[in-house]
Amino acid sequence: MSHPTHDTRQYLLRLYVAGQTPKSISAFANLKNICEEHLQGRYQIEVIDLLINPTLAKDEQIFALPTLIRKLPEPVIKIIGDLSNTERVLVGLDIKVLAPEHGLKNAQP
User: According to the model, what pLDDT value does residue 5 have?
Assistant: First the structure.
């Protein structure tokens, strides 16, 4: 997938957690660091605590926690886990693309 040289896409990210568990806190911290480094000023993070709003799990088909859902840009993408594998998250969010012969590279040329 080719993106413009100056990527201006805005990212709406929803992180679904169940309370303030170590895994939830780690997922939020990892996501915040990734966004600060790679999406400066182009992202919004919403944290949804399913202990407070359990019906949202069914609405979004959440089966494991924590789960990150990229609502924008479309298409919607889900990533499950604590987001500690930065490269996997970058590829999953379409911030970096996987080039088989060269490994990972930035989506923006």
Answer: 46
